[in-house]
């Protein structure tokens, strides 16, 4: 296997870094293993302090020119990047599926189009964003959104290209330059994105990719004095380490972290809808931050709901994610597979019962974990409070609205909550009391790029999406002009 290229699903992927508009090698590599069959698919260059230094230096050098470019020209280049993504959508989908094991059909239909949208949407928004001009006691006041500098972006493996571009799009549109550290468990599409961006005319140094592990490449990036923003998507423990590193340089952070979201089903809910929503949670083998894995169902509905969920869940097809018939694939890596096994083993030992699945899929072997539904978990136990990030649902019952809300809000997370009810007044009342950055009422996973997105509590810090992204990726400046020539002063009020 070459150490500079890998041929993955008939696509040639460069496995080196992309720094300052050229490919850069490291002395060491790490092995990228596909979850589908646990076979090595690439040797990827393992960056460290030196590569991070070079990437930040390149991004800093490119910053002045990119920031000074009229927004219309920046937007045109970003639209060309989006066109390039569309043109290579099928290749990107095939490589991502081989790399992280998520469904090919999802990448083709939904994920890769959204990747392109992440550039197009923020290109459009940057062009249209208003710089309001107000009058303050006769003075003219102008608010502007200035690019902040070099943005460091660190991303996880569960939706690598989608999550990276959801930050790269607004960061570049606002006039910043970027250093991306992709996940070591699924690093390949970031490299293809570098090729696409280069071909689309993005100037050298504006977008840089440093491959490597969290400790090797991620850590030096987070503590680098040359970065101006740090956007991290990943787990809570890593976020703690990163926050400490970033604190030394007082770098503003955006954290999108884990979740343990509830699916709260009232006795007036549409049962067909609730059954569909529950089984939908097995999507991406449950490796979805927003997943509603804690099913809370009103006690009067429980038996019928469970019967129907089990009937539907049994028809879920597990297998190779490249097969269009597959609904649930493998977990991303051996360590993650063992982590998920451990959660379920401990839950069963602690009194929970598996009414579906409950362990690895022996027929498929490898990293395939059966879609699992657990009941009778002990209140307050680990399986009800910690993020598993696998195809594991728990079902609990509640007796009335107050108890349902209390159970929904009973974890340290607050990323999303889904509420199913046929009563519009209850929908208003309960949604207002749920502790979550996003609440879905009688629907799930409806995401708009213009909406604020982020979590409460341990699910994150800050919001991105629409203008909220520019609030984070820009230095917002207020300039006040005297009405009388160039005199200053505001009567003592500052
Ligand atoms: P992770 O925290 O292990 O790794 C995420 C990234 O951080 C990787 O690129 C990794 O290399 C890097 N990293 C690890 N240690 C580092 C360090 N010391 N310094 C700098 N970087 C470091 O998370 P993961 O296992 O890759 O992803 C799963 C987690 O991501 C889950 O908790 C999931 O909920 C969360 N997630 C959240 C969202 C969201 O939008 N809220 C979206 C997707 C995933």
Automatic annotation (TrEMBL):
It is an enzyme of class 1 (oxidoreductase). One of its GO terms (molecular function) is succinate-semialdehyde dehydrogenase (NADP+) activity. It holds the Pfam family Aldedh. InterPro entries: Ald_DH/histidinol_DH, Ald_DH_C, Ald_DH_CS_GLU, Ald_DH_N, Aldehyde_DH_dom. It catalyses: succinate semialdehyde + NADP(+) + H2O = succinate + NADPH + 2 H(+). Its EC number is 1.2.1.79. Keywords: Oxidoreductase. Residues 27-478 form the Aldehyde dehydrogenase domain. Signal peptide: none annotated. CDD domains: ALDH_F8_HMSADH. The active site is at 256. Belongs to the aldehyde dehydrogenase family. PANTHER family: ALDEHYDE DEHYDROGENASE-RELATED (PTHR11699). This is Putative succinate-semialdehyde dehydrogenase [NADP(+)] 2. It comes from Mycobacterium aquaticum.
């Amino acid at each position: 296997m070459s150490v500079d290229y890998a041929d993955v699903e008939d696509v040639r992927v460069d496995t080196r870094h992309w720094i300052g508009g050229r490919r850069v090698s490291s002395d060491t590599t790490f092995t990228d293993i596909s979850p589908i069959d646990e076979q090595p698919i690439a040797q990827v260059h393992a960056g460290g302090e030196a590569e991070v230094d070079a990437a930040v230096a390149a991004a800093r050098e490119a910053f002045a020119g990119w920031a000074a470019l009229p927004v219309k020209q920046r937007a045109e280049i970003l639209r060309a990047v989006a066109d390039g993504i569309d043109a290579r959508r099928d290749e990107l989908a095939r490589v991502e599926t081989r790399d992280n094991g998520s469904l090919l059909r999802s990448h083709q239909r939904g994920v890769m189009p959204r990747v392109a949208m992440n550039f197009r949407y923020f290109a459009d928004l940057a062009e249209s964003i208003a710089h309001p001009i107000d009058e303050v006691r006769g003075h003219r006041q102008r608010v502007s959104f200035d690019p902040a500098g070099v943005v460091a972006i660190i991303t996880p493996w569960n939706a690598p290209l989608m999550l990276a571009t959801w930050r790269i799009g607004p960061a570049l549109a606002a006039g910043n330059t970027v250093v991306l550290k992709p996940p070591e468990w699924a690093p390949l599409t970031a490299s293809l994105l570098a090729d696409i961006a280069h071909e689309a005319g993005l100037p050298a140094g504006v977008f840089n990719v440093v491959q490597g592990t969290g400790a090797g490449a991620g850590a030096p990036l987070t503590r680098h004095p040359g970065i101006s923003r740090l956007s991290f998507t990943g787990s809570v423990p890593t976020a703690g380490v990163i926050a400490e590193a970033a604190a030394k340089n007082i770098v503003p952070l955006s954290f999108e972290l884990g979740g343990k979201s509830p699916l709260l089903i009232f006795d007036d809910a549409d049962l067909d809808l609730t059954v569909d929503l529950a089984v939908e949670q097995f999507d991406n083998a449950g490796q979805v931050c927003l997943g509603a894995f804690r099913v809370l169902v009103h006690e009067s509905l429980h038996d019928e709901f469970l019967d129907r969920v089990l009937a539907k869940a049994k028809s879920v097809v597990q297998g190779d994610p490249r097969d269009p018939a597959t609904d649930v694939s493998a977990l991303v890596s051996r360590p993650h597979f063992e982590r998920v096994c451990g959660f379920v083993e401990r839950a069963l030992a602690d009194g929970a019962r598996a009414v579906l699945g409950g362990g690895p899929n022996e027929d498929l072997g490898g990293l395939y974990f059966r879609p699992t539904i657990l009941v009778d978990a002990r209140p307050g136990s680990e399986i009800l409070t910690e993020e598993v990030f696998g195809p594991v649902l728990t079902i609990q019952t509640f007796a009335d609205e107050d108890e349902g809300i209390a159970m929904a809000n009973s974890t340290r997370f607050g990323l999303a909550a889904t509420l199913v009810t046929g009563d519009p007044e209850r929908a208003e009342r309960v949604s207002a009391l749920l502790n979550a950055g996003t609440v879905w009422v009688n629907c799930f996973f409806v995401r708009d790029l213009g909406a604020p997105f982020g979590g409460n509590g341990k699910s994150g810090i800050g919001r991105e999406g629409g203008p909220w992204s520019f609030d984070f990726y820009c230095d917002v400046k207020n300039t006040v002009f005297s009405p009388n020539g160039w005199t200053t002063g505001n009567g003592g009020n500052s």
